[in-house]
Amino acid sequence: MSEDRPLEELAALLEDETARRILTEIYREPASASALSGRCGASKPTVYRRLEDMRRCDLLVERTRLDTDRGHHHTVYATNLERIVVEIGDDGIDFQVDRREPMADRFTRLIGEM
C-alpha cells in the first residue's frame, strides 16, 4: 500500500505551513506561483520550492493557461490530492495517497469499460 515516496518525505512536506496553505489554495482553484505568493504571504522563491517538493511527491499537476488579453501563457498549478490514509498494524505504519483522476483519464476509462 505504500507509495513511491517515503512517508517521511511526505510528512515533512505536510508539516510545512506554507506547503499546506498552497495545497489548500490549489485545491480550491488552479493558481499561478505569483498568485500563490500573494495569497499565502510567501515569497515567490519559497512558493516555487514548495511547488517543486509537491511535484516530486506527485501532489500537483501543472497546466498552461493562455492569457488572451496579452497573448502570453503562464503555468498554473492544481492539486491532484484527494486524501492521505495512514494505517498502523502488526507490520508497522503504512500509508496510501489517493489522487484525483484527471478528467481525460476518467473519460478514457469510462469509454474502455463500455
TrEMBL record:
Q: Which SMART domains match?
A: HTH_ARSR
Matches recorded under Pfam families: HTH_20
Gene3D superfamilies to which the protein is assigned, alphabetical? Winged helix-like DNA-binding domain superfamily/Winged helix DNA-binding domain
According to the UniProt entry, where is the signal peptide?
Answer: none
Annotated InterPro entries:
ArsR-like_HTH, HTH_ArsR_DNA-bd_dom, WH-like_DNA-bd_sf, WH_DNA-bd_sf
Q: Which GO terms describe its molecular function?
A: DNA-binding transcription factor activity
In this protein, which residues make up the domain named HTH arsR-type? 9-90
The protein depicted here goes by the name Helix-turn-helix domain-containing protein
Q: Which organism is it from?
A: Natronorubrum texcoconense
